[in-house]
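One example given next:
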Amino acid sequence: MKKKKLVKSAKEFDQRFDSGEDIHDLIDMSKATMLRTAKKVRITLDVAESLVHEIDEIRKAIGVDRGALIKIWLHERVKQEKGAA
């Protein structure tokens, strides 16, 4: 089996990943660490049905779960608000 050429930059790594290339042998897993997240808390939101349909259209187009998409959006917004403070 031919060994893959190592990447020279994070940008090149991202490009190879984004193009669908298998990047597993480019990663040194012996140095990997697992991040422990804070305790999870369940929340309930009441939103308009039309908004849920719009969210579902977006999530289907990018192929992710509704809850995952909302969590990503919330995380991005919190980071944005903290950066503006």
